[in-house]
Amino acid sequence: MDLKNKYYxxxxxxxxxxxxxxxxxxxxKIENNKSKGVSSQAITWNLNHKGGQKAGPxxxxxxxxxxxxxxxxxxxxxxxxxxxxxxxFSDKSIYDIIIPKVNExxxxxxxxxxxxxIEPLQFxxxxxxxxYGWHMDGRSDHNGKYRQYLPGISEQEEIYKTNKxxxxxxxxxxxxxxxxxxxxxxxxxxxxEGGNLKFDFGPHSSKERFYECKEIRPQGSMIVFPSFLxxxxxxxxxxxxxxxxxxxxxxxxx
Length: 254
What we know:
Layout: E1 8-10, H1 16-35, E2 58-59, H2 65-70, E3 79-80, E4 82-83, E5 85-89, H3 92-108, E6 117-118, E7 121-126, E8 131-135, E9 147-148, H4 158-162, E10 167-168, E11 177-185, E12 192-194, E13 197-200, E14 210-213, E15 222-226, E16 231-233, E17 236-239, E18 241-250
C-alpha cells in the first residue's frame, strides 16, 4: 500500500508512575512464568529465535537481507531475528488508554481500516545487546489469517508445522489478520541507549527509506502504525528498554 501517513504518535500518554507500575508487574509475571517452566524467550513466526539456535549464532541486528548475503551469512542457519524476554497480559485500564488513541490515529492518518479486536498486551524486555531485527507484525492477505486450532488435527497440517503462530484457540482471532500495531515506550530515555524503533519505508519511498523514530523515546509515548510495515528495534547498547505492544485485528483487506 502507498500510504501518505506511515505512522501516528502520541507524546507521553502514560504517566511515569503508570509506566513504572507496568514494568514492575511485567517483570514479576516473567519471573512467575519461569518458576512454572514457561520460557520468556521471544519468538517470531515460531522461527529464528535465539533460544532455538545452536551456540554462537550471528544476530540479524540492523542488517538487511541483502547486507547479510553480501557478507555470506546464511540467513536461515546462522542468524536469529530477536533477542528479548516477553510476557502477555490483559489490563482494561491500559486498553482504555490505547483503544481511543488507535481510533484517533486510524482516522487522522486517513487509513480508516476496520478492526474489531485487540490482542493481549505484550510486555518486552530488551537487555544490553537485545534487539529485534527486520520484521512485520502481520501479513495483510488471507494467507496471514489466524486459523482455528483443533487438537490432533491442526498438527497434521503442513502449515502448522512451519508456522504455529497462525493457529489459535481464541475464537475472536480466527479468520482475522493484524492490521494496526501499537508500541508504548515504558522507559525513561536517560536509562538506556540504542533500542530505537526503526522503519523501512521501502526502496521507492519518496522519503528516506530507513527512519529511526525517536519521537517516542519520551517515557509513556505511544506510536500507532500499520502491522504490515517493516520495522525493527535497534540493539540496546546501554541499560534496559521496556515496552508494551498491542495488535488490533480485523478481517483481511478487501
